[in-house]
Design brief:
CATH architecture of one domain: 2-Layer Sandwich
Number of helices: 6
Largest sheet: 5 strands, mixed
Radius of gyration: 39 Å
Order of helices and strands: HHEEHHEEHEHEE
Oligomer: single chain
Strand order of the largest sheet: 3-4-7-5-6
Structural class: alpha+beta
Number of strands: 7
Shape: rod-shaped
CATH class of one domain: Alpha Beta
CATH superfamily of one domain: OmpA-like domain
Helix content: 25-40%
Length: about 325
């Protein structure tokens, strides 16, 4: 073999096609696989959220990701410049649309709360407001506030429960204030000796004031429904105190176990009802609005204050119950 000439060019061939093809496919499948894993993880995370959240929580998430929603019936600004769409089926989205026809648009799942209160007339309840929680939900929320874990409680339920709880506490403070005012009123010179005849109780229905008969005080003569002068002064003092709160009032009359003799047409039922009505008339005469009276009833000798002695004079009494506006969370034990 002849030796190559030094002037002859030497050509070197390098095969790199397989290596380049391998590198190209390697980068592509990794990116595609990473996208697939991310999509699957997002899907399973979404399914998990749908299974553990309540409708209230899902609405809250929707409001967070859709802070401003387009109304289908209103256009323009709220207030004095508020506008209306051409019809009730939607807002016009095209300048070439007919005047009596609207092009439907996809609305976000949540109605915007901006300016919502301006559309409701004064005194009309907002239909979108959250209803008060049920008794079962109240128990869950009470456990939550005491340190327990509640998964099904939504934000609206917690807010409604907290508002109701604060209103009940405020009402209870009003009852305690009235009880102190009643004690001060009974220290007046013209009502001396009456304090022992009053029994004030905190009951589930509200605050109950019972005016009982004692040897030194009685509002009525035995067997009579005519209130005496000292009883009228007491009812006037109570009317002034009870007028400071808006709660309704239930009035009940009670007698002792002593029955009328013979086949009398007038008995304890009639006597207790007439005495309850006499108390109602004195409260109204002292300035209490008639709308505050919610119930007047005669209970005869069914509910004795001293059950062991039906003839005890304390069983003859008038009951004034200041009704709660907010239901009590748990019954109050009578003091």
């Amino acid at each position: 073999m002849a030796a190559p000439n030094k002037d002859t060019p030497i050509i070197l061939r390098r095969r790199g096609g397989e290596h380049e093809e391998h590198e190209e496919h390697g980068g592509t499948w990794k990116i595609a696989y990473a996208d697939f894993v991310t999509a699957m993880m997002t899907f399973f995370l979404l399914m998990w959220l749908l299974s553990v959240t309540t409708p209230e929580q899902r609405n809250g998430l929707a409001e967070y990701f859709n802070p401003v929603a387009v109304s289908q019936e209103h256009s323009g600004a709220d207030g004095i410049l508020a506008g209306r769409s051409v019809d009730d089926s939607g807002s016009l989205t095209s300048p070439h649309a007919e005047g009596t026809r609207s092009i439907p648009v996809a609305a976000p799942p949540v109605v915007a709360s901006v300016g919502k209160d301006d559309r409701n007339p004064a005194g009309v309840k907002d239909p979108m407001a959250a209803p008060p929680p049920s008794p079962g939900r109240k128990a869950e929320l009470r456990d939550l506030l005491n340190g327990g874990a509640v998964v099904t409680a939504g934000v609206d339920d917690i807010q409604a429960y907290m508002n109701e709880r604060e209103a009940a506490a405020q009402e209870q403070r009003s009852f305690e204030r009235l009880e102190r005012e009643i004690a001060r009123a009974l220290s007046a010179p013209d009502l001396r000796g009456v304090a022992d005849s009053l029994v004030v109780q905190q009951v589930p229905e509200g605050m109950r004031i019972q005016i009982t008969d004692r040897p030194q005080f009685s509002m009525f003569a035995v067997g009579s429904a005519q209130m005496n002068e000292k009883g009228r002064r007491l009812m006037q003092a109570l009317s002034t105190i009870l007028a400071s709160v808006p709660n309704g009032i239930a009035i009940s009359g009670h007698t002792d176990g002593l029955a009328y003799g013979g086949a009398a047409k007038y008995g304890n039922w009639e006597l207790s009802s007439d005495r309850a009505n006499a108390a109602r008339r004195e409260l109204l005469a002292a300035g209490l609005p008639p709308s505050r009276i919610k119930r007047v009833e005669g209970r005869a000798d069914l509910d004795h204050l001293e059950s062991g002695n039906p003839l005890d004079p304390r069983n003859r009494r008038i009951g004034l119950t200041l009704l709660r506006q907010v239901p009590a969370e748990s019954p109050h034990r009578a003091q």
